[in-house]
Specification:
By secondary structure, the chain is of the alpha+beta class. The chain contains 3 helices and 3 strands; from the N terminus they run H-H-E-E-E-H. Strand 2 and strand 3 form a beta hairpin.
């Protein structure tokens, strides 16, 4: 099955999925890639070829990608890779 072009409708679908099912990841993008370490809330507004647009604590923020996205599969791979690249919190002894 071929990947979908990164149209506004595909962007909306990605954003809905991320906001509904992966809100913690969207906040992590804002904190790490947006440099807003004290962010309390974040919503994904759009995914374009060059960047994702977020609303972070009521303010629009653009987080650029490291390459130009080609399609929906590339967007998925890139968003997952960005999340996996985040520093992991240290494990606590317990």
């Amino acid at each position: 099955m071929a990947a979908d072009p990164l149209t506004p409708a595909v962007s909306d679908r990605i954003c809905k999925h991320m906001n509904d099912d992966h809100a913690e990841a969207v906040l992590a993008y804002a904190r790490h890639y947006g440099g807003l370490t004290a962010a309390g809330s974040a919503r994904m507004l759009a995914v374009g070829p060059e960047a994702m647009r977020l609303e972070v604590d009521g303010v629009a923020v653009e987080v650029p990608f490291d390459h130009s996205l080609q399609d929906s599969d590339d967007a998925h791979r890139t968003l997952v890779a960005m999340l996996r690249a985040l520093p992991q919190p240290p494990a606590t002894a317990g």
